[in-house]
Specification:
Blueprint: E1 2-4, E2 7-9, E3 11-14, H1 20-28, E4 31-33, E5 40-43, E6 46-50, H2 58-66, E7 70-76, H3 84-98, H4 105-113, E8 121-127, E9 135-141, E10 145-153, H5 155-161, H6 166-180, E11 185-190, E12 206-208, E13 213-215
Parallel strand pairs: 10-11
Antiparallel strand pairs: 1-2, 3-5, 4-5, 6-11, 6-12, 7-8, 8-9, 9-10, 12-13
Helix pairs in contact: 3-4
Amino acid sequence: MSNHAPYHFFNEIALDPTLSDSLEQKYDEGYVFTRLGPHSMRQVRSVRVPIGSFKLSSENRRILKNYSSLAVHYKALPYANYHWTIGKIAVDFYKAKAGARAMSAQKIKTLFVSPHESMNGVFIYQWEQEERPLGYCLLFSSAHMLHYAYPFYHLLRARALALPSLGMAMMLRAILWAQEKNMDYVYLGSIQDKRSLYKFQFKGVEWFNGKKWQQGKPEKSQIQISKLK
């Protein structure tokens, strides 16, 4: 077992993101792509939603009703329309959520525009009546799976909405998008501490314990209490 602060992981490999069959197998073994470099994968306490058993809960429906005019658009990477303001939105978001060193503007730009990074797509979230995007999520997808990796949104505009749960609404839109594409799984990152447990509000959600996938929230003894990324 390896442990590199602040993230816990079991193993680490490098794999070409164009090898879709091998990648889907590795995700099934608990590996996910990271932002540490092209082809970098770590075996973590991965969390995934099996699309075959996914159904919206009453709380999910309430959130989506509040954001009924929030549209999601998929764009392949590299992203030709990248602008420095996207990096600022991301830096402000991750600084507020996880600390000043969580994500740099240069790293965000690299993830959006480099043809050598592992992420291969981005969700762009915006109100149907507006052209300005409200949020983004960098992702990796293949024919049968989606890794919802690095979401962020405009904090000031979100606060002005006076509507809670924008992050959850974005995640739900992504899951429904994958369902429409007949995918098998949506991967939601990993469990690092108790703040990661919000990912367990979806029907059928499961997590990788280092050896196998299991359902239900992990016990406190099974997760490492550490700082977020």
